[in-house]
Amino acid sequence: MDPTLIGLIAFGAVLVLLAIRVPIAFALAAVATVSAFMIYAFRTGTFMPDRAIRPTSSMVFSNAFDLVHSYELSMIPLFVALGHIAYRSEITTKIYYAAKVWLASLPGGVAMASVMGCGGFSAITGSSIACASTMGRICVPEMLKMGYDPRLATSSVAAGGTLGSLIPPSVLFIIYGIFTETSINSLFMAGVLPGLLTLAGFILVIAVWVWRNPAIAPVSEQRVSHSERMAAARAAWPAVLLFVIIVGGIYGGIFTATEAAAVSVCATTAIGFAQRKLTFKALWESVKETCIQTAAIFFIAMGAKIFVAFIALTGVAPMIVNAVTDIGPSVVVLMICIALIYLLLGMFLDPIGIMVLTLPLMIPLVESYGLNLIWFGVVVIKLLEIGLITPPVGLNVFVISNVVGRQAPIDQIFAGIARFLSVDVIVLLLIMAFPIISLLLPMGMR
To answer: Least CB-packed of 11, 123, 279, 438 within 10 Å?
Structure first.
């Protein structure tokens, strides 16, 4: 059988398995293993299964082993642990409380504080889903209690939660860097300005929304003194310190991303115990949750690594590159098509699943056009970020819906999300049109 045909059939099989809710890790690994076995078995033209066992086993186990023993992959459990420990030490939530104290007297101030809190949470944890879940439990009930419109209260947190995809550290950037063999340090820096630009856009959306309809965000009548504001700002110093360690350390060449993660975990643990917010029981719970979350990510990464090796065996990627080259679309048309593919997949699949499924085909295509892989990584992550709040799936929307229950039906959350999606699209277009937005900080690291 033709390896290219087997490769195309394998892609279709993976999509079918994902459609029937087979876990992405098992779908990728199973399809890649069976398909590779078929290629090796038919190598001589006749079916010889005995000659396919050894090379198939070698492909599966060697790729899984190499991935698990990858030095770069070690930063995933470190950053996941950092998020859990920082949350239990109340470090991640102090940014929100500080922003709320300073902004509560402004129209829509608590919603703005929620978005800023999500940005601060993201700068430490690197997980959009965890950000939406945690901040949703803190911010949304408080805004609803203050009389905020449910659409504004829920959509601001759902959208703010997506900032974890761009603002470093980002698990998606780590996975992208490993599979494309690009610098994770550079990827982290490349996400800073687009992330801050998105954060500013979300705050602007809230300001305009409330300006046009003041009734959706009653202003708090509680007056806060200057001393209380300064005390709230000082209380957020651990989060600022961790951000400086991660971003400043990497940008200044003091740490690699892995070293920054390790130093941040140690600093967070020390601060938590010193401030008596962290207990040994809470630390153990953080470790257990880290192990569970890391294992899930590692299984997906291993399945993806096996699938990438299988795709290289089939020759599907060169075939697609040649086909696109023959058509000869411009870079603009190519990027529009890629964006549409990611936006379509983002309506139905989770971000990690989309990334590991598409990168084996997209990267050779992008490289054939001579495009910068760091810039393309930011574009991909931004597209995946949009997918987190795009109907009908919108993982962050469903997370917020589970948090608030009947107080805000899911259709109301999606109704509010539309305004934030418009900002996401504008930022995406700016990133695509002006690559310097993504590449400015990585270029400064040289």
So the answer is: 279
- If 0-12 CB within 10 Å is exposed, 13-18 middle and 19+ buried, where does residue 407 land? middle
Distances (CA, A) of 72 to 137, 173, 253, 397: 32, 11, 17, 31
- Which positions ≥6 away from 140 have C-beta within 8 Å? 114, 153, 154, 157, 400, 403, 404, 408
Among 17-21, 109-113, 388-392, name the most confident range: 109-113
According to DSSP, residue 219 is labeled P
**In this structure, what token pair is assigned to residue 29?**
């690994």
Residue-range domain boundaries for the chain: 72-296+375-444
Q: Is the pLDDT of residue 355 over 90?
A: no
Q: What is the pLDDT of residue 288?
A: 92
Structure tokens at 222: 């509680």
User: How many angstroms separate the first and last alpha carbons of the chain?
Assistant: 48
Q: What is the pLDDT of residue 300?
A: 85
3-state secondary structure of 108: coil
CA 199 to chain centre: 15
At position 320, the amino acid (one-letter code) is: I
- Looking at residue 208, what is its pLDDT? 92
Instruction: Tell which wins on pLDDT, 392 or 297.
Output: 297
Residue 439 — very low, low, confident or very high, per pLDDT cuts 50/70/90? Answer: very high
pLDDT digit string, tens, across residues 126-135: 667 777 777 7
For residue 439, the one-letter residue type is: L
User: What whole-number distance in Å separates Cα of residue 361 and Cα of residue 345?
Assistant: 15
For 313-338, give the DSSP string.
Answer: HHTHHHHHHHHHHHH---HHHHHHHH
The residue written with tokens 């990611």 in the block is 342
Q: What is the DSSP string of 238-249?
A: HHHHHHIIIIIH
**Confidence bin at 246 (pLDDT 50/70/90):** confident
Structure tokens at 68: 């698990």
392: cis peptide before it, omega within 30°? Answer: yes
The token pair that represents 219 in the structure block: 């202003």
Distance CA 284, CA 287 (A): 5
Here the tokens at position 332 are: 């603009």
- Decide which of 176 and 218 is more confident: 176
Contacts 24+ apart (CB under 8 A), 104-108: 104/220, 104/222, 104/224, 105/219, 105/220, 105/223, 105/224, 106/219, 107/207, 107/210, 107/211, 107/214, 107/217, 107/219, 108/152, 108/206, 108/207, 108/209, 108/210, 108/216, 108/217
